[in-house]
Write a structure and sequence with these properties.
This protein is 51% helix and 5% strand. Strand 2 and strand 3 form a beta hairpin. With 269 residues, the protein is mostly helical. 27% of the residues are buried. A three-stranded antiparallel beta sheet has the order 1-2-3, with helices on one face. It folds into two domains: 163 residues, no CATH class; 73 residues, no CATH class. Helix 2 crosses helix 7, helix 3 packs parallel to helix 6 and helix 3 runs antiparallel to helix 7. The N and C termini lie far apart (53 Å). The chain contains ten helices and three strands, in the order H-H-H-H-H-H-H-H-H-E-H-E-E. The protein is globular.
């Protein structure tokens, strides 16, 4: 089977066993759940999925060798499987993963050797990388099959997707019930924004604030913002000049670009 057919089969098996784990080994099950639910760093789950896909597509490879620089018949390009097949699969099924490849994260792009348990990957959540490498070794040592791991990963991600959708639906329903409530005073809005900006992982909010300002007042001076691109992807990948691109109404050429940083505002011409 080609990679797309493998992914379709994995998805069908995951949806068929959504309510029940397919793994009997509790330690392996716990490792998979930790990697899937580590919201602070989503590189681990994409790395695991890429290596499982490579192993299923070519059983002769070692899932711990996702770099062609390693050489030999048992290495493969994990990044190719990630970018060429997994990205479309993740987007199609709206799985809660990073929108871009795991192999461009600082931890993995600076590494080109086997991902054994003896390797200590330096990055956020060392426990995440430790458990991911243990899972790769579980498959390499045939303690568990690659397809079983992959099915379990997708199953957990589908459950997370459902939980996120239910949470969003609940919030939207609460907003509908409050349609007749009095609007917040400007002071309360400013306070809420300050509290949000002070939260961890709130880097997207400044982008939305500037975009909202252009939506509210941009028509008066003939400017508007272009559609916002992925906030987790590098500008080089998206082809954008910055986080927000401003162009004249009715035109495509960018006249102003904003790059959001936690620094003093500077202007470049």
């Amino acid at each position: 089977m080609n990679p797309n057919e493998i992914l379709q089969g994995i998805y069908e098996r995951a949806t068929a066993t959504l309510a029940t784990s397919v793994i009997e080994n509790e330690a392996i099950s716990d490792r998979i759940e930790f990697v899937c639910k580590c919201l602070g760093n989503r590189a681990g789950v994409r790395l695991l999925m890429s290596c499982m896909l490579g192993k299923l597509h070519n059983p002769a490879v070692d899932p711990r060798n996702p770099y062609t620089e390693i050489g030999g018949d048992n290495s493969f390009s994990g990044r190719t499987y990630d970018e060429r097949y997994l990205t479309a699969f993740i987007n199609k099924h709206r799985l809660p993963c990073n929108p871009t490849t795991a192999f461009l994260t600082p931890t993995l792009r600076n590494h080109a050797g086997p991902l054994t348990t003896e390797v200590e990957l330096v990055g956020r959540q060392r426990e995440l990388y430790k458990k991911t490498l243990e899972l790769l070794e579980d498959v390499a040592k045939e303690r568990i099959a690659a397809d079983v791991v992959f099915v379990e990963v997708v199953r957990v991600l589908l459950i997370m997707r459902q939980e996120n959708e239910l949470r969003m639906a609940s919030l939207l329903e609460a907003m509908k019930r409050n349609d007749d409530a009095l609007p917040l005073p400007s002071e309360a809005i400013v306070t809420l924004m300050q509290q949000h900006l002070a939260c961890k992982n709130a880097s997207r909010l400044p982008v939305l604030i500037v975009a909202a300002a252009y939506q509210a007042a941009g028509a008066r001076f003939g400017e508007t913002h272009r559609p916002l691109l992925s906030h987790n992807a590098a500008d080089l990948q998206t082809g954008s000049l910055g986080d927000i691109e401003i162009c004249l109404v009715g035109e495509e050429s960018v006249v102003t670009s904003y790059e959001m940083k936690m620094k003093r505002v500077t202007m470049m011409t």
